[in-house]
Every structure is written in structure tokens, then in C-alpha cells.
Fold:
Amino acid sequence: MAYLTLTNINKIYPNGFHAVHNFNLEIEQGEFIVFVGPSGCGKSTTLRMVAGLEDISSGDFLIDGRRVNELGPREREVAMVFQSYALYPQMSVFDNLGFGLTLQGVDEDVIEERVLATAKILGLTDYLDRMPRALSGGQRQRVAVGRAIIRKVGVFLMDEPLSNLDAKQRVTMRSEITQIHRNTHATTIYVTHDQTEAMTMADRIVVMKQGYVQQVGTPYELYFKPANLFVAGFIGEPPMNFIRGTVKDKKFAIDTQSVDLSLCMGDRCAGCENREIVFGFRPEAIQLGEREGAYHLKAQVELTEMLGDNANVYITMGEEHAILKVDPHDIPPVDSGITFSVPYDRVYLFDAQTEEVIDTGADHAPVKVQAGKQ
Ligand code: ATP
Structure:
């Protein structure tokens, strides 16, 4: 049995707003789960229901097989790290770290031992005498994480813990939290709206939109096998390119150009006939020029962005817009005409009405990477 089980969890706030709909998830012991989605999608509400800070309107929440819906946060043995750090300003780093244990009546010797061990894991040993105001944002965040891990609880919950840090600190803390997880093996649920954080940290990601789970999967699965248009557009940066149109005689028109869908889908494209679809391909899946096993598309270069390790090329194909990721040495001039290749096995087709994935060219291509922690 899974360590955490959420079955048909719903949240209806007292004002009648239905914030979370039939949330189902099983989490194994030691897993690092990330809830990701745009603002207001219900990820914090779900996390707060797991923490016991918010009532569960209906459904069952089990920790290690025991129903805990009615238990308070302390009895659930979970530790939470908030976006705002919530440090005690008048206490030193040492006291901030040890305060929870003091409240539990733990022996002073044991507290000192655990504070020193936690400070070591987090690189805070030299700052134990400092007050929070004399720390950088990243150091404060580390104290907040330390206060949670020092309790040695089974479940570790984090709500956007890096959002107050600058971009560079976020990257550093991201890998630090991953490292802490590797050392502690604490079952962790981490909430973020940042798909890069989700992709880099998670064992499995739960993508949410407007209170509904869209897909649960490993970073690999979400990137290569998105269940719908929303997940395909949310995971990946720049996002997947989408072109809408109708299929006629296996052909899909991209402005004045036409692609034969049977080349990427074989006989399966018969199901798309006369259907309004969305043709998707990732910016990084393309190659400039004409390659084998690929659609060749002509486009005009509108704008280019040199990023160092790669470059974004914004193109138009008549009314259609798309972004291509290219090698920084191959950036085409603005206003020039180019030809690029979209490999058949990197094409995604979605139903324009339901937004569900219809098929991907990759289904019939050899699997190149095994799913699992990236
Ligand atoms: P963010 O990234 O902005 O924190 P989120 O995905 O965590 O967003 P939640 O905070 O879970 O979203 O909120 C989900 C929805 O529930 C939002 O539409 C929000 O306005 C609503 N909501 C949150 N708290 C309450 C409340 N106490 N009463 C009514 N509605 C609420």
C-alpha cells in the first residue's frame, strides 16, 4: 500500500467555491512529488489539506494506511515549509532550528546534537549565532527548511519555498533541496508554479488546472507523452508550438504548406479525417534544413534571441507563429526565409475540441530514454 493515499479529495470553501475536484493520488514512501500549475489551480489548497491546515470537504486521506482526515497538523506528523519562511525574528538561527524540539520537551543535549547535525547538512554551521535579519534570502530559506527536517517527520510539505529568492539563488536552493531529499529520504510534496522546478526536482509531477488534475507522471512522461494540450503547453520552455487546422485526405495545412499526416502516424491518421486538430512540435525538436524522416517547412524569421548555449528563433508561416530552438552558431538573419525539419516522431496531434492528445509520432518510434528519475 502507498504511504500517502488521497482518494476522491474535494475542497469546497465556505463561500461555496469548489477549489479541488476529485483529487486522486498514491504516493510511495520517500517519493518527491511536485504539484505544479498556474496560479489558482488548487495546489496550495491540496497541500494544506494534506497538512491538516484546511478541512477536507469529502474524500479520504490516509497516511500509512490510517485515515487522518480528522487529525490536526501535529498529530499527522508532517512538517511544512512556507513561502514566507516564517522564522522567529527575535531568535538566533540556533534557536529557530531548535525551537520546535524545545516545545516538544526534547532534552537540551539532544536538541544541540540535532541542531548541529541539521546545520551541517544545510551549510549553516557558521551562522548559528546570527539573527534572521542578518541572513541572505537563501540562508533564511535554508533555516526554514532546517526547522522542518530537524523534526524527522515522515512527510515534508513545501509551498513555493523558493519564490522569494532571486533566479540564481533559486537554482542553488533547488539542487540543495534535492540533495537534502536524497539524504533524508523524507516523503515530500512540493508546490510550485514553475515548470523548471517541477521538472528538475520531482520523481513524479502532478499537473493541475482549475482544481482538476490534468496528468500525473515522471518528468520524462510529461515531457514526451503529455495527455492534453494544457500539459503539452505547460511543460517545456519555450512551450510547444501549436498549429490549428482541419485534416482533409490525410493532409494538414500549415498556411499554404501541406503535411501528409500518414507519414508520422501511418494508418492511424484515418481517425483524424475531417477533424479539427492541433499539430504540435517542440521548439527544440526541429533541425534547420531538410532532414530525412521529417516534415520540411518553410518560414520567415521574425526575431532571434541569443541565449548563449542556444538561441530562440521566432518564425512566421503566413498567419502562424512558432519558436524554434537552434544552435547559437546557426542563428539565421532576421527577415530571411528558412527551411526547417520537424521529425515525424516528434509530432503531437491533439483534438482541438476536447484538447486531449490524439496521437504522437513517437508512439511507433523506438523508446530512446527509459522513464524514471531524470
Ligand atoms: P497560487 O500559486 O496563486 O498560490 P494555487 O494553485 O496554490 O495558487 P490555491 O491557493 O489552492 O491556488 O487556490 C485555489 C482556488 O481557491 C483559487 O481560485 C482561490 O482564489 C480559491 N481560494 C483559496 N482560498 C480560499 C478561501 N479561503 N475561500 C474561498 N476561495 C479560496
